[in-house]
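Deliverable D4.2, example record:
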Amino acid sequence: MSKPSTAEFFDEWSIYDRVLDHNYMFHDEIYRDVGRVLADHYGHRPFALLDLGCGSARHLGQALRGRSVSRYVGYDLSDVALAHARENLTALNCSIELCRGDLLEGLRAGGERFDLIFSSFSLHHLMPADKSVFFEIASRRLNENGLLLVIDVAREADEERRVYLEGYLGWLRSEWQALSPAGLNALCDHIRNNDFPETTADLRAMAARAGFRRCSEINRFRWHHTWRFEKSRTAPE
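Output generated by the structure prediction step:
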């Protein structure tokens, strides 16, 4: 993945905002469930959060309402997205640090541990070896009873990337009709050149090698999955 090309695409934030406005990637349903997971796991206990590929934090900011976030650190390659995130996170009323950088830069920065590491539709931009590194460092940066929540696209078992792209882009061109032809072409080009999704089994295996003992799938909407990874086999009281 080319950092400049990815940053330049997402700096055209109006394209992605329109995707969010029309719920094409099921953000409303996904983050409804994320909010429930956070409520069940943390209740009103304070927790520190590292958000990797935070984008505008438009939906996560809403899912965090009612929770007690003690510290929020977000990383993204787009300065435009980070500016939106600062506005969307003001209601948290906690320490907020927003930084320009990719997922691995965010994980490698500093030695602070977090209660929650979160990544939404970003992991698929990494190559397989870097995805393994992502899980390894995330495991080290989490507190013992912490959570890693990952929202991302995934291929079916034994499905080649070429077949995945044919299906995904065909669905996108058929269903995402609110986008202009130019916007649709830009989005398809971005996906074709930068998206390298794994299978769920591959991600589970990477996580297990990194020390995560539990993995559960919270939801799935077409190719869009949400996974919960935990270092401990038993949930905290």
